[in-house]
């Protein structure tokens, strides 16, 4: 039987902006009813242009933000982040890797400490075991034990992203949310990091939510694809279904890599249809 690691049911997220004493302000519907299910060991890619709601969805899945309505389930259990103390076991199941490996590492922290920190915060692990586990993880992500005492500035962009991945894996998560994890890297380095992620996924049975705007990367890494457009999932299916038979006009335009002007005209047409 398949194991469902991630499920969302009708997730919405509204942002209220402006307003004040005399004004009503405005509501942005950043997510409009997102339903998805993701099995253990699979990769779901979420694609869409800037502002379509990808990061908002990532924040909800990683329990940083709460939905306005709808449900998030991790390993079949409903998550309620409004609870004063969300079960720490639940939080550690989902980890995130951000796009920018420069910004996400503290420049004054040695790599060994970066990797041991989650074990200090979340687990009562003796120092010797912490070191051992951090060293082992360094090698798993293709770095060397002698990197343990070095600082982030001594590494290349690709190596720093390996460190960020290692840190995310220290607590044995079930689900990794990868938010544009290779977009800031050179093309050749991108391929190495993507291969590393695929190997780690196999070895640890990890499930990935992979946010990307790069269709060649998505085609390479995804089992399933969701295309988002103005807060809605306009396309959701297996990679082959979505790539071979896109249903929505926006996706067709995206895949055809037509000039920006065409994307704009399609958007206007869709907006007119919706009005
Ligand atoms: N804290 C916030 N307050 C108000 N509006 C917000 C907030 N966060 C996001 N939004 C709005 O919600 C919508 C979705 O934003 P989101 O950041 O999720 O998009 P995205 O697809 O991740 O874009 P990008 O690729 O640029 O990060 C946008 O219209 C954005 O302006």
Automatic annotation (TrEMBL):
<dbReference type="InterPro" id="IPR013563">
    <property type="entry name" value="Oligopep_ABC_C"/>
</dbReference>
<feature type="domain" description="ABC transporter">
    <location>
        <begin position="6"/>
        <end position="255"/>
    </location>
</feature>
<dbReference type="InterPro" id="IPR017871">
    <property type="entry name" value="ABC_transporter-like_CS"/>
</dbReference>
<dbReference type="InterPro" id="IPR003439">
    <property type="entry name" value="ABC_transporter-like_ATP-bd"/>
</dbReference>
<dbReference type="InterPro" id="IPR027417">
    <property type="entry name" value="P-loop_NTPase"/>
</dbReference>
<dbReference type="InterPro" id="IPR050319">
    <property type="entry name" value="ABC_transp_ATP-bind"/>
</dbReference>
<dbReference type="InterPro" id="IPR003593">
    <property type="entry name" value="AAA+_ATPase"/>
</dbReference>
<keyword id="KW-0067">ATP-binding</keyword>
<keyword id="KW-0547">Nucleotide-binding</keyword>
<dbReference type="GO" id="GO:0005524">
    <property type="term" value="F:ATP binding"/>
</dbReference>
<dbReference type="Pfam" id="PF00005">
    <property type="entry name" value="ABC_tran"/>
</dbReference>
<dbReference type="Pfam" id="PF08352">
    <property type="entry name" value="oligo_HPY"/>
</dbReference>
<protein>
    <submittedName>
        <fullName>Oligopeptide transport ATP-binding protein OppF</fullName>
    </submittedName>
</protein>
<keyword id="KW-0813">Transport</keyword>
<comment type="similarity">
    <text>Belongs to the ABC transporter superfamily.</text>
</comment>
